[in-house]
Amino acid sequence: MCLTMRKKDNQVYTQEGGIYHEKQSRELCALHALNNLFQDRHAFTKRDLDNICLTLSPEAYINPHRSLLGLGNYDVNVIMAALQSKHCDIIWFDKRKNIDRLQLDNILGFILNVPTDFSWGVVHLPVYRKHWIAIREINDTYYNLDSKLNAPQKIKDVLVFLKEQIESKEKELLLVVSSEISEAGTWYQDNVVTQERVE
Fold first, then answer.
1. I need a labelling partner for 158 at 20 to 30 A (CA). Which of 28, 101, 123, 137 fits?
2. Which residues are CB-contacts of 38 (< 8 A; sequence separation ≥ 6)?
């Protein structure tokens, strides 16, 4: 259940008093982002995501939802299906909206999609791919759980951090919410004045 991600639910943390943080392996940043988001190394496996790819395109000779060699590089459709299996939804944040109106208490976490250079060992190639990064609150502090980091990084002000990220047209922000919150639309405060009048 997605609700096990409650902000003060310590039982999903895999390190005593610490934070679960998967580091980058092959092209598995989507897998790492999901497991880091759920703070659980058993949330998903590569096999789970590969099975989702096959479910999404069962007749495809070359599956369009992962890399040609099957090493990862999963697309957003795989992430969405994976989250739906945990009773969660993704909200693609419209950059025209005011990020300050996000209802953080109703958002379970964030996934950023950012461009990254492609490297082969120590050689960096002039090819850019997309990279998935999880951000979530743990023990009242938000953390950047990027699998390319050596360790989780504390985020002083998550709204400022997210604003800076989405200033780039190359970056996209996805909100992870429970299915109930998604349906109710209560992840965003559309009009404070209207709500106050209703109350």
1. 28
2. 4, 5, 12, 86
pTM for the whole structure: 0.79
**Contacts of 18 by beta carbon, 8 Å cutoff, 6+ apart:** none
Residues marked active site are found at: 29, 131, 146
> Which CATH code is given to the segment(s) 2-198?
3.90.70.40
Instruction: List C-alpha distances in Å: 144 to 9, 93, 103, 120.
Output: 18, 18, 19, 25
pLDDT confidence tier of residue 27, bands split at 50, 70 and 90:
confident
Say which DSSP state 139 is in: T
Residues paired with residue 135 on neighbouring β-strands, in sequence order: 110, 144
Question: What is the domain partition of the chain in residue ranges?
Answer: 2-198
Q: Please give the C-alpha separations between residue 180 and each of 62, 76, 81, in angstroms, as whole numbers.
A: 35, 21, 16
Residue 23 DSSP one-character state: P
